[in-house]
Amino acid sequence: MLFSWYLVAAALLLGRVPRERVRHFWAFVVYNYDAKALQVLELKQQTTMRTVEALIRSPKWGDPRGYDLIIGKSRTGTRERDVEYSVIPEPPSEADPRIVDLYR
User: Fold this and answer.
1) CA 79 to CA 2: how far, in whole Å?
2) What residue ranges of the chain have pLDDT lower than 70?
3) Which residues contact 17 (CB under 8 A, 6 or more apart)?
Protein backbone atom coordinates (compact mmCIF):
# COMPACT_ATOMS: atom_id res chain seq x y z
CA MET A 1 0.00 0.00 0.00
CA LEU A 2 2.76 2.48 0.88
CA PHE A 3 4.67 1.65 -2.28
CA SER A 4 1.75 2.61 -4.52
CA TRP A 5 1.26 5.84 -2.52
CA TYR A 6 4.88 6.82 -3.13
CA LEU A 7 4.43 6.17 -6.84
CA VAL A 8 1.35 8.39 -6.94
CA ALA A 9 3.11 11.13 -4.95
CA ALA A 10 6.15 10.99 -7.26
CA ALA A 11 3.93 11.11 -10.33
CA LEU A 12 2.10 14.13 -8.92
CA LEU A 13 5.35 15.93 -8.22
CA LEU A 14 6.56 15.23 -11.74
CA GLY A 15 3.26 16.48 -13.16
CA ARG A 16 2.40 13.14 -14.76
CA VAL A 17 -0.95 12.67 -12.98
CA PRO A 18 -3.52 15.46 -12.97
CA ARG A 19 -4.39 16.40 -9.37
CA GLU A 20 -8.12 15.97 -9.96
CA ARG A 21 -7.59 12.24 -10.62
CA VAL A 22 -6.07 11.58 -7.18
CA ARG A 23 -8.68 10.73 -4.54
CA HIS A 24 -8.13 10.88 -0.77
CA PHE A 25 -9.05 7.71 1.12
CA TRP A 26 -8.35 5.86 4.35
CA ALA A 27 -7.40 2.21 4.60
CA PHE A 28 -7.24 0.08 7.76
CA VAL A 29 -6.95 -3.53 8.72
CA VAL A 30 -10.27 -4.58 10.27
CA TYR A 31 -11.92 -7.76 11.43
CA ASN A 32 -15.03 -8.57 9.41
CA TYR A 33 -17.35 -10.53 11.70
CA ASP A 34 -19.47 -11.75 8.77
CA ALA A 35 -16.46 -13.13 6.86
CA LYS A 36 -14.68 -14.14 10.08
CA ALA A 37 -11.44 -12.74 8.66
CA LEU A 38 -9.10 -9.77 8.72
CA GLN A 39 -9.64 -7.48 5.74
CA VAL A 40 -8.54 -4.08 4.50
CA LEU A 41 -11.32 -1.53 4.75
CA GLU A 42 -11.06 1.40 2.34
CA LEU A 43 -13.11 4.47 3.16
CA LYS A 44 -13.55 6.87 0.25
CA GLN A 45 -16.80 8.63 1.14
CA GLN A 46 -16.19 11.97 2.85
CA THR A 47 -19.33 11.76 5.01
CA THR A 48 -18.30 8.36 6.36
CA MET A 49 -14.78 9.60 7.03
CA ARG A 50 -16.11 12.68 8.84
CA THR A 51 -18.37 10.50 11.01
CA VAL A 52 -15.45 8.24 12.00
CA GLU A 53 -13.28 11.29 12.68
CA ALA A 54 -16.01 12.82 14.87
CA LEU A 55 -16.17 9.60 16.92
CA ILE A 56 -12.38 9.62 17.35
CA ARG A 57 -12.45 13.25 18.55
CA SER A 58 -15.36 12.60 20.91
CA PRO A 59 -14.32 12.28 24.56
CA LYS A 60 -16.96 9.57 25.05
CA TRP A 61 -15.76 7.37 22.16
CA GLY A 62 -12.13 8.23 21.35
CA ASP A 63 -9.73 5.67 19.89
CA PRO A 64 -11.75 3.19 17.79
CA ARG A 65 -9.43 0.33 18.72
CA GLY A 66 -11.46 0.11 21.93
CA TYR A 67 -14.84 -0.48 20.30
CA ASP A 68 -16.42 -1.85 17.12
CA LEU A 69 -17.78 0.24 14.28
CA ILE A 70 -20.55 -1.17 12.14
CA ILE A 71 -20.35 0.36 8.69
CA GLY A 72 -23.48 -0.34 6.72
CA LYS A 73 -24.16 0.11 3.02
CA SER A 74 -27.64 0.38 1.54
CA ARG A 75 -28.81 0.97 -2.01
CA THR A 76 -30.80 4.15 -2.60
CA GLY A 77 -31.41 3.80 -6.33
CA THR A 78 -30.71 1.72 -9.40
CA ARG A 79 -27.28 3.08 -10.33
CA GLU A 80 -24.05 1.61 -8.93
CA ARG A 81 -23.22 4.86 -7.15
CA ASP A 82 -26.66 5.18 -5.53
CA VAL A 83 -25.62 4.04 -2.07
CA GLU A 84 -25.78 5.40 1.43
CA TYR A 85 -23.38 4.48 4.22
CA SER A 86 -24.00 4.47 7.95
CA VAL A 87 -21.52 4.32 10.82
CA ILE A 88 -22.73 2.90 14.13
CA PRO A 89 -20.37 2.60 17.11
CA GLU A 90 -20.86 -0.37 19.44
CA PRO A 91 -20.28 0.06 23.19
CA PRO A 92 -16.65 -0.51 24.25
CA SER A 93 -15.75 -4.10 25.09
CA GLU A 94 -12.69 -6.30 25.43
CA ALA A 95 -11.32 -7.57 22.13
CA ASP A 96 -11.70 -11.28 21.46
CA PRO A 97 -8.21 -12.79 22.00
CA ARG A 98 -8.59 -14.88 18.83
CA ILE A 99 -9.06 -11.72 16.77
CA VAL A 100 -6.05 -10.08 18.45
CA ASP A 101 -3.96 -13.19 17.64
CA LEU A 102 -5.02 -13.01 13.98
CA TYR A 103 -3.90 -9.39 13.83
CA ARG A 104 -0.45 -10.16 15.25
Assistant:
1) 32
2) 1-22
3) 8, 11
